[in-house]
Amino acid sequence: LGWKFYDADDYHSPENKKKMAEGIPLNDEDRIPWLCALHDILRREDSCRQDAILACSALKKMYRCVLVSGASAIESNQPEQPGENAALKILFVHLDGPMDIIAGRLKKRRGHFMPPELLKSQFDALEPPSAPENFITVSLEKSLPEIVLEIQRAILQG
Prior knowledge:
Blueprint: E1 4-7, H1 14-21, H2 28-47, E2 52-55, H3 61-69, H4 73-76, E3 92-96, H5 99-108, H6 119-125, E4 135-139, H7 144-157
C-alpha cells in the first residue's frame, strides 16, 4: 500500500514500559495519554492527506473512540460526529485468535518490554469491536499472506 507504519508500542511512556516489564498490566489511566498521542499522530497524517497503518492493541471500545476522536471521546465513549472537529476515518482490524496461538507468537519476540504473562490481562480487558464501529475481524489462524490479503481487500473496498 505504500502507507506509513506506526507501532503504538514505540509511543508508550517510559513509566508504562517499566510497569509492563515488571508484569503489571496497564490500566485506563496509563493508556489514555498514550492513546491521545496516537490520535494526534493519526490526525497529523490525515491533515497531510497521508494514509497510515497503526499497530495497536486498542482493547476497549473507549480506546478505539479515543483513536478516532481524541480526548473528547473520553467523556462520551462515542466518536465525534462529522463537523465537530471531524472524527478520523479508521478501519479497525481485529486480529482474532485463541490465546495459545498468540502466546506462542509472543514467546518468539525478543527484546520486547511486555512479557507473555500479561497476555491473559489483555484477553480479560478485550471488548471486541462491534457495530457501529468500522472494523473487520481477521483470524490469526490464517497464514500471514492470507491475513495481509484480507486486510488489503477491506482497505481497497473502502
